[in-house]
Specification:
Distance between the termini: 17 Å
Strand content: under 5%
Number of helices: 15
Largest sheet: 2 strands, antiparallel
Structural class: mainly alpha
Helix content: 55-70%
């Protein structure tokens, strides 16, 4: 099976994983003793931090999307730069090619701005399910690029993804469904899919998110001053913005990178599919979203759609032709 896993903050990886590694025989450390507790802790930390994004974006409250994104991205950039400076690698950190930086910045800014705007209109739990259409859109884009029809499993995955969105939004379809909010969520998912395809095709550096956060932050703040009303976040909102920049944008990727170096990248990457469910759990725990049976079932269907969509059309022959960034 071939899985294309992209982290919620923009780092994609195409990995190959056997069925027996996923069910009943998953190994994170590659040893006969089972997964290492340290590796499991790193993976769990990364997934929880990525999943905290909807909760943090909801906690920001009425702050405009571009302001939230710009401030959190700049904080993430400064935090990443400080870590690189401590290692004496600030020059390497800032030497990312401009074309790569622009592409990554546009992908991050567009994806997350649409996502935050959708949260404000249709709710964080519902927006979380809609955003997880990105694996479905990725398969459709890849099929168009290769000029071939999706496989049977991929077609089932596409159907499951859209069915999950329909189930999650069903309670709002009685008359109060916000079509603009749904469209914003779909645009975010499509933006992330286009970004993931571009990152998978191009041979770019692994560490591209940290340096690109500065450009993304500046661009988002410019968009805020042009398109949005002036706004100064409250102290709790600033706290959420700081956590967004340091947690999902920076520390999560550091934990994930360290985990993949200490264990099996193929087995570890399969845990990224748990992110929407963990995000739903955090929303429910902190009372930040209307987590219902519909949204939970919708999230499960979206995850099933992502797994089915990532199934290789030709098994191992297809896996040999894939690339890992």
């Amino acid at each position: 099976m071939t899985l294309l896993v992209t982290t919620p903050t923009g780092q994609p990886a195409i990995v190959h994983i056997r069925w027996w590694e996923r069910f009943g025989g998953t190994r994170l450390s590659g040893t006969s003793g089972g997964p290492k507790a340290k590796t499991m802790g790193l993976v769990a930390g990364a997934v929880v931090l990525w999943a905290s994004w909807p909760a943090l974006a909801t906690a920001v409250g009425p702050a405009p999307p571009f302001l939230t994104l710009g401030a959190s991205a700049l904080i993430g950039f400064l935090f990443s730069l400080s870590l690189a400076a401590r290692k004496g690698a600030s020059r390497t950190f800032l030497s990312l090619p401009l074309r790569t930086m622009v592409f990554v910045s546009l992908g991050l800014m567009g994806n997350n701005a649409f996502y935050i705007a959708a949260i404000a209109r249709i709710g964080p739990a519902e927006a979380n399910v809609v955003h997880y259409l990105w694996p479905v859109f990725l398969v459709l884009l890849a099929s168009m690029l290769h000029r071939r029809l999706p496989s049977l499993f991929q077609a089932l995955g596409i159907a499951c993804g859209f069915l999950g969105v329909a189930v999650a939004l069903y309670p709002q379809m009685a008359g109060n469904l916000d079509g603009v909010g749904v469209l914003l969520g779909v645009c975010g998912a499509m933006t992330f899919a286009v970004y993931s395809v571009g990152r998978s095709i191009a041979r770019v550096e692994t560490n591209v998110v940290g340096p690109s956060l500065g450009l993304a932050g500046l661009a988002a703040l410019c968009a805020h001053f042009i398109l949005e009303p002036a706004y100064w976040p409250s102290n709790p909102e600033w706290l959420a913005i700081i956590f967004m920049g340091i947690g999902p944008f920076t520390v999560a990727n550091m934990l994930w990178d360290k985990a993949t170096r200490s264990g099996s990248a193929a087995a570890i990457s399969s845990f990224a599919f748990l992110t929407p469910l963990v995000a739903m759990g955090l929303l429910a725990t902190f009372g930040l979203g209307n987590v219902t049976l519909n949204t939970i079932v919708g999230a499960l269907l979206a995850i099933a759609g992502a797994l089915l969509s990532s199934t290789s059309k030709r098994g191992s022959s297809s896996a040999r032709g894939s690339r890992q960034d």
